[in-house]
């Protein structure tokens, strides 16, 4: 996800300060999304269960790993998976 330009950032600030409740909510969502990491990092534990930084726990029946199973995106948060 690309970052905001200074002009866009100033507009979001104005929405937070002087906007109606819907505009304030939209501005807070924009800020939250921009502060989230671009990847969901997964790590496999000794039991073969993968744990993602978004809180997902995923077990594969064949234990061949993420790439062999063509799992590229987290099913919980939708971000691209990065392995730790």
Structure report:
It is a single chain. The chain has helices at residues 6-18, 21-35, and strands spanning 39-44, 49-52, 57-59, 80-83. By secondary structure, the protein is of the alpha+beta class. The chain folds into two domains: 6-35, no CATH class; 39-83, no CATH class. Strands 3-2-1-4 form a four-stranded mixed β-sheet, with no helix packed on it. β2 and β3 form a beta hairpin. It is elongated and about 55 Å long. 7% of the residues are buried. The mean pLDDT is 82.
H/E element string?
A: HHEEEE
The total count of helices amounts to: 2
Give the biggest beta sheet: 4 strands, mixed
Q: Rg, please?
A: 18 Å
For the biggest β-sheet, the strand order reads 3-2-1-4
Which outline best applies? elongated
Q: Domains counted in the coordinates: how many?
A: 2
Give a brief description.
The protein is α+β, with helices and mostly antiparallel strands.
């Amino acid at each position: 996800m690309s970052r905001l330009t200074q002009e866009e950032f100033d507009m979001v600030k104005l929405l937070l300060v002087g906007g109606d409740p819907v505009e304030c909510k939209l501005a807070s969502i924009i800020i939250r999304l921009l502060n989230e990491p671009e990847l969901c990092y997964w790590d496999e534990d000794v039991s073969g269960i993968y744990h993602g930084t978004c809180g997902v726990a995923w077990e594969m029946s064949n234990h061949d790993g993420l790439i062999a199973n063509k799992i590229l995106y987290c099913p919980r948060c939708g971000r691209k998976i990065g392995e730790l």
